[in-house]
Design goal:
The chain has about 120 residues and is mainly beta. The chain has a domain at about 20-85: Sandwich (Jelly Rolls), CATH 2.60.120. The protein has one helix at about 105-110, and strands at about 15-25, 35, 40-45, 45-50, 60, 65-70, 75, 85-95, 100-105. Strand 4 and strand 5 (about 60) form a beta hairpin.
Amino acid sequence: MLADVKPPSVPEGASGMTVLVEWPPGHPGAAPHRHSGPAFGYVIEGAVRFELEGEPERVVQAGETFWEPGGDVIHYQDGNALSDAPSKFVVFMLCAPGQEMFTFVDEDELGKRAHLRAPRPSAG
């Protein structure tokens, strides 16, 4: 058993998508975004920097899993945590009917929701 998570119910008309993501060394990943439904992932190789709104940043190592509820939650980071090696993960996403699977969050919304982001490590 790698993960046991109870997702929200899947509405009729939802669709699923499985994606293989490969980041070269040090790649920052996708810009802040959200998914219309839950996403479940498994890191195949390397390490991925993972951060969801309201949760502290963490590093998910090869052989570990991650998940996110989707919907309104912002996914801040999914980049390669390694500067000297590639990282690779597979993710299965459920898409709410009539909605995009993946949407970027603009700077205005990020600013308005800054109070919902977990504290960032201080520089230095």
